[in-house]
Amino acid sequence: MKRFLLLALAALGQAKTVTHDFNVTWVTANPDGLAERKVVGINGQWPLPVIEVNKGDRLVVNMHNSLDRAASIHWHGMFQNNTNYMDGASMITQCPVPPGSSMTYNFTVNQNGTYWYHCHTDYCYPDGYRQALIVHDEDAPFKFDDEFTVTLSDWYHDMVEDLSAGFMSVFNPTGAEPIPNAFLFNDTLNSSLPVKPNKTYLIRIINISAFVGQYFYIEGHNFKIVEIDGVYTEPAEADTLYLGVAQRYAILLTTKNETDTNYPIVTVADSSLLDTMPPELRLNNTNWLEYNKNADHPQATINVTDSTQIVPFDDIALVPSDGMELLPEPDMDLNVTVIMGNLNNGQSYAFLNNISFTTPKVPSLYTAMSAGEDIVSNKGIYGEFTHPMVLNHNDVVQIVVNNADGGSHPFHLHGHNFQVIDRQPPYGEHFFDYLNGDPVPYDPSNHTAFPKIPARRDVVVLPPQGYFVMRFVADNPGVWIFHCHIDWHLSSGLAMILIEAPQQMQERMTIPQEHIDVCQAAGIASKGNAAADTLDFLDLKGQASQPGWIPDGFTARGIVALVFSILSAICGIISIVIYGLADVKSKQADEVSTEREQSGVVVVEENVENPSKS
Ligand SMILES: *[C@@H]1O[C@H](CO)[C@@H](O)[C@H](O)[C@H]1NC(C)=O
Ligand SMILES: *[C@@H]1O[C@H](CO)[C@@H](O)[C@H](O)[C@H]1NC(C)=O
Ligand SMILES: *[C@@H]1O[C@H](CO)[C@@H](O)[C@H](O)[C@H]1NC(C)=O
Ligand SMILES: *[C@@H]1O[C@H](CO)[C@@H](O)[C@H](O)[C@H]1NC(C)=O
Ligand SMILES: *[C@@H]1O[C@H](CO)[C@@H](O)[C@H](O)[C@H]1NC(C)=O
Ligand SMILES: *[C@@H]1O[C@H](CO)[C@@H](O)[C@H](O)[C@H]1NC(C)=O
Ligand SMILES: *[C@@H]1O[C@H](CO)[C@@H](O)[C@H](O)[C@H]1NC(C)=O
Ligand SMILES: *[C@@H]1O[C@H](CO)[C@@H](O)[C@H](O)[C@H]1NC(C)=O
Ligand SMILES: *[C@@H]1O[C@H](CO)[C@@H](O)[C@H](O)[C@H]1NC(C)=O
Ligand SMILES: *[C@@H]1O[C@H](CO)[C@@H](O)[C@H](O)[C@H]1NC(C)=O
Ligand SMILES: *[C@@H]1O[C@H](CO)[C@@H](O)[C@H](O)[C@H]1NC(C)=O
Ligand SMILES: *[C@@H]1O[C@H](CO)[C@@H](O)[C@H](O)[C@H]1NC(C)=O
Ligand SMILES: [Cu+2]
């Protein structure tokens, strides 16, 4: 099937409709030259097509799923204002599109800059189903002669279904993430960006990885950062960037006058995220800013031994060029803590407070759209294990995310960019300092002064054992998932949903019939509460829930014992494990959740139970 682009000038202004037909199938590719594998292709091609639109355009993508599994497309960073149902997050805003079915995504793009699209159904984008989405803007507050878009990614030789089976498994009680086999630069290696002397280039860099952040610099060149995650910034001089998964930067690079030398573009994978380091894995890669095709293409000379010694530009220091000031004190204050731990099936899970996100039986948006007006704002109907929070229309919302885990986590909120008003420790030489002691949670009575004009973006990296604080206005009615963008962590539960302005959702939106038909084809209910109950929305009987807690007193030895007892059971051997079980008592008994209202400020507190750590 042919891919075609329809450029139809709208009656008013320059806005046009950009149409793509995507027939999604398996193809084969070997981008690192090390292993040919099956990847998700579009219209028989991989790398996938880069989508380009102008600001104000309508984007229409007709996706036909010719794979042997369900799929969807999320338009990362797109606000989907009044089109929440086009957000592409399976079981949040739509049903997963089953094999043989189609879905048309159709929305206007009133934003600038650098985005990407990717599958958002179970773990599906690490198999190659991700690519850049660029919004051109004639009115951008900077000038350049030409532009490049490059993606950075991690790459696995195995299919994600095989990797995930090993990841969520009693054989992996510590939750060690699969180690990639390679790191790609624009879905290849050893490539060159041909440049002319004395010119200014806009280079857009997108981390489309499943797991690993990367450092980026160009030998012999500084550059100016002019955009992060679709938000223009005052130009900021920098030499090195860190891109957590899903983050984007656009930089202006002015080339030298001389054309005798080519310069390495250096990418270094963030080794702090990798539990093991296979000797054959190339963490750093050289590509080239190519002034002269015939000159030498030298390998990078890297003068640090470990990626943690690299000092990147601190994105919190960037100032949005629209000058949007620090939002006022919040109307709603959420406080969540990232925790990794095991549940009683022996597997490792990720938690925000005491909840490991578990997919509901009805997409949460469809729960909101089918609930009675009187009950739509009751968070109970969205289920306990989706970790729902209901936001009032136009409230200022603050989210504090503390990290009780030793890894960093790139957190993404759908439907918004947000102000990052505090983050500790900062990027740089002290980034890993809190690992030397206990986690340090945000202390509202002892924090650094918030910036007057805070950086805004849609993915922020949560430091190891540290925290960040973000604010945004709940001006975009919809169900938006807030999650760690490391795909392994999303699948082990590091997510929650924000039910934003549910009454306005009902007033403003209608789910397209085609989307309802997709649910029918997938055999998934499109009405009802999180348990698919359409009669009594408050009855959550049968909702999907996380496995039970490990009884108190179960120690690390106990976890190992549990794993072995499960393994023994698998082998058909009866084994009674008694050590490790000190004081058997269910944790669930003392869980409480309270909400109190104070001078118009809703403070949501949840009792945080540390699941037993291994
Ligand atoms: C999609 O591609 C597959 C494989 O090339 C082909 O068999 C199928 O007919 C195509 N489907 C559509 C709807 O174009
Ligand atoms: C890239 O360059 C490295 C180092 O020269 C080489 O080992 C590797 O085979 C090259 N890979 C590809 C895909 O060109
Ligand atoms: C896209 O949505 C617009 C506005 O609702 C509508 O006019 C148009 O027909 C839709 N296009 C397609 C291909 O569905
Ligand atoms: C990166 O890859 C995309 C897709 O193959 C391509 O369109 C684009 O031109 C490449 N960028 C550069 C700088 O070569
Ligand atoms: C560089 O470009 C500027 C204009 O953009 C021009 O004035 C200048 O002469 C150029 N220098 C060289 C060495 O080409
Ligand atoms: C988007 O671009 C317009 C100019 O075209 C600018 O006024 C606006 O501030 C930009 N928005 C952001 C979030 O950078
Ligand atoms: C290139 O030469 C022009 C003058 O001809 C100078 O203004 C500019 O700074 C030079 N560029 C660089 C990167 O050295
Ligand atoms: C760069 O790669 C080499 C070979 O994989 C490795 O020995 C070295 O530690 C890496 N350097 C960094 C900073 O990651
Ligand atoms: C390492 O290299 C970077 C850029 O390539 C340079 O800025 C820095 O000074 C170097 N550090 C040392 C210790 O040589
Ligand atoms: C947030 O929760 C953590 C963990 O329970 C607690 O230590 C911290 O004091 C709370 N912070 C706020 C601002 O309530
Ligand atoms: C306030 O925070 C600073 C920096 O984290 C810390 O060193 C200091 O001990 C804290 N002071 C109090 C009173 O908690
Ligand atoms: C959504 O649109 C409303 C106007 O209908 C506007 O006030 C609001 O700022 C928009 N929100 C986003 C996130 O674009
Ligand atoms: Cu994570």
UniProtKB/TrEMBL annotation:
Molecular-function GO terms, alphabetical: copper ion binding; ferroxidase activity
All residue ranges annotated as the Plastocyanin-like domain in the record: 23-138, 147-293, 358-503
Membrane topology: Single-pass membrane protein
Cellular location(s): Cell membrane
Keywords, in A-Z order: Cell membrane, Copper, Glycoprotein, Membrane, Metal-binding, Oxidoreductase, Repeat, Signal, Transmembrane, Transmembrane helix
CDD domains: CuRO_1_Fet3p, CuRO_2_Fet3p_like, CuRO_3_Fet3p
Signal sequence segment: 1-15
Positions of region (Disordered): 595-614
Keyword Metal-binding: yes
Bilayer-crossing regions: 559-582
GO annotation, biological process: cellular response to iron ion starvation; reductive iron assimilation
Pfam families linked to this entry: Cu-oxidase, Cu-oxidase_2, Cu-oxidase_3
Keyword Repeat applies: yes
One GO location term (cellular component): high-affinity iron permease complex
Origin superkingdom: Eukaryota
Record-linked Gene3D superfamilies: Cupredoxins - blue copper proteins (2.60.40.420)
SUPFAM superfamilies for this protein: Cupredoxins
InterPro entries tied to this protein: Cu-oxidase-like_N (IPR011707), Cu-oxidase_2nd (IPR001117), Cu-oxidase_C (IPR011706), Cu-oxidase_fam (IPR045087), Cu_oxidase_CS (IPR033138), Cu_oxidase_Cu_BS (IPR002355), Cupredoxin (IPR008972), CuRO_2_Fet3-like (IPR044130)
PANTHER family named in the record: IRON TRANSPORT MULTICOPPER OXIDASE FET3 (PTHR11709:SF361), MULTI-COPPER OXIDASE (PTHR11709)
Family membership noted in the UniProt record: Belongs to the multicopper oxidase family.
Protein name: Multicopper oxidase
Record organism: Hypocrea atroviridis (strain ATCC 20476 / IMI 206040)
